[in-house]
Each structure stands twice: as C-alpha cells, then as structure tokens.
Design a protein that fits this description.
Number of strands: 0
Number of helices: 3
Largest sheet: none
C-alpha cells in the first residue's frame, strides 16, 4: 500500500500546478505503475473469487517459472554474458 501511496503522491507532485518551472513532466512511468498495481489487484480478486486453489496453483507456477528463468540466466559461461 505504501508503494501505491508514494506513486500517487509523486504523480500529484509532478502535475502542472505543483511542478517547478522548467522541470520536465514525466508522468508516464508513474501512471503505468498505478495501472499495473490496479490490474494485479483486479486479477488477484478475480482469482480469489474463482477459488483459493487456483490462486495457489498460479503462484506456484509463477514461482517455478521465475526460478527456472533465474537458474538459466545464472549458468556460468552463458553465451549472453560473454564479454565482447
């Protein structure tokens, strides 16, 4: 919740009336962050409505996928990590 609050506060601080003169307005990243948080909350709510077992299975699948990707990227001597 704190991250969402800080993001919204930063978005308000970067708005036209609150912005310093000459400072560029770059709200895109913060707006995308708020949308990502909203969509993840919406997906979580829908999954909980469907059933807790589906939520746990989805979380386990995401965890396994993330672990596999990190393991693959950390293999010593990987071609993508070779110095050119």
């Amino acid at each position: 919740m704190l991250t969402l609050t800080l993001t919204l506060t930063g978005l308000a601080a970067d708005s036209g009336p609150a912005r310093r003169s000459g400072a560029p307005a770059r709200p895109g990243r913060r707006i995308l962050s708020v949308l990502a948080m909203f969509l993840s909350a919406l997906v979580g709510a829908v999954l909980l409505k469907i059933g807790l077992s589906l939520v746990l299975a989805s979380a386990l699948a995401l965890l396994a996928t993330g672990a596999a990707v990190l393991w693959r990227l950390s293999v010593p001597g990987a071609g993508w990590a070779a110095a050119t």
